[in-house]
Amino acid sequence: MITFLDEVKCVPCHRDAPKITEEELARLKPQIPDWAIVEEAAIPRLLRVFEFSDFAQALNFTNQIGAMAEQEGHHPALLTEWGKVTVSWWTHKLQGLHINDLVMAARTDQVFQDISAYQPAD
Questions:
Q1: pLDDT at residue 120 in the model
Q2: Which helix (H) or strand (E) holds 14?
Q3: How many domains does the chain have?
Q4: What mean pLDDT value characterizes the chain?
Q5: Mind listing the pLDDT tens digit for each residue in 50-101?
């Protein structure tokens, strides 16, 4: 039973891997409270918008998330704009949510916290 998303490793995912259950999602979602569950093209996804003070910071965050995703072999949709980055996680092979998506959302939150700790306050 998974209790802390930041302590779990992503697992290789195949087409017949189980999607996350409603019960698991209800239990784990509070660990990533800033993420919304949205449907796009009838596929549930985790979505969060991160705000920054300029484009350079947003791009730095995008690059860090991209490097993390490449290392794990699990890739989000990233939209980088001036002062914000929209991140969306879902498992393409499953056309839905897998535990890996919640793990990566938690890791994304950690990257944001780490970056925010070094940004001067406005």
A1: 59
A2: none
A3: 1
A4: 88
A5: 999 999 999 999 999 999 999 988 899 999 999 999 999 999 888 899 999 9
Residue 71 resides in a domain: yes
Total residues belonging to the chain: 122
Per-residue CA distances from 98 to 16, 39, 77 (Å): 11, 14, 15
CA distance 78 to 26: 25
Alpha helices, DSSP H, located in the chain: 22-28, 55-72, 99-117
CA-wise closest residue to 76 among 98, 54, 53, 52:
98
Which residue segment(s) compose the domain that 91 sits in?
Answer: 20-117
User: Tell me, what DSSP letter sits at residue 119?
Assistant: S
